[in-house]
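Folds abound. Consider this:
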Amino acid sequence: MTSTKKDPVLVVLQLSGGNDFMNTFVPYTNPLYMDNRPNVHIPVDQVMPINDELGINPNMPEFKALYDEGKVAVIQGVGYPVPNRSHFRSMDIWHTCEPEKIADEGWLGRAIKELDPSKENVLTGVNFGRGLPRAMVAGGVPVASVGNLESYGVLTTIEEQEQRSEALDIFARMYSPAMGQGPVVDYLSQTGMDALKGADILATAPAQYTSSVEYSDSSIGQYMRNIAQVHCAGLGTRVLYTTAPYNSFDTHATQLTAHANLVTNVSRTVNDFYQDLKEHNASDNVMLLVFTEFGRRVHDNGSGTDHGSGGAAYIIGDCVKGGLYGEYPSLEEDKLLDGDLHFNNDFRGLYTTILEDWFGLDAKPIVNGSFEKMDFIKK
């Protein structure tokens, strides 16, 4: 990017549990939809059509409005060969781009390493929520993980250098292995210092932020608000990540009620976030990726749906060429994969597009290979 342009920023919202693509973007004119979903379907007269074949879940009017404005790219049937129906393993594959082996480093951790190779900014990557998603983990890459932005700066009241040094030393020793010396200790010590530096800087973000947008009290509503606060504070953060409550989209039973509440929250939160950035003139360099580890099975199980494949990802922002990408997976029985939707778009092609056409990075070493790109980013 040239000096006259803002650095591109990626925000990731992970929908853990496997969101039901068929009841989010509904093939409402396909008779096979009703045949396979006698109990768990969206009534045709409630669907919000986007064309003669597909419509959006009626609980997502804000998302539909963004789609109509050309701000949403829908990656249909996204997945990978030989899908895994385990939450843990499938999400791990999405995080590390390693479908055939267990890997330690995540794709965004590698990307952060390339975006800030000298580790000049301890806040190049920030996660909001408990723990740290494997996607953001890579050796030597500092990533701040924040539970509550307003209380994150735990050492900001320690003003004396001696006290601060003592606190850092205690932090480092707490996380040092019993052996006590060597590169591992040095790395952990530096990581502790980076985390504390990040805490101090992040603690300044809320005071700089005012907004007319009122986010929901849900965890993703508040975390997306935190993301907006950090982005608008201009701290140089390039990758911001948060996750819907653990496995909340795993709708095996009573799906119609549960899924309606879930997608209502996603729709409102995504719109709140976008409108918040617009209000602050801060939306032009932000891309939002919303993804889930897999879709649901084509046939319902009575009151819900079980783990499937061929789900969807959504790219939202001013930078997006909105619309549908790839074919909606066939519902014909002989074209299903063991009763599931076939994937049409490899998620590593989605990542490659983001890495190369948004961040300007070489994607091959990050996603472990060459994959076909998509054309959802405005040039």
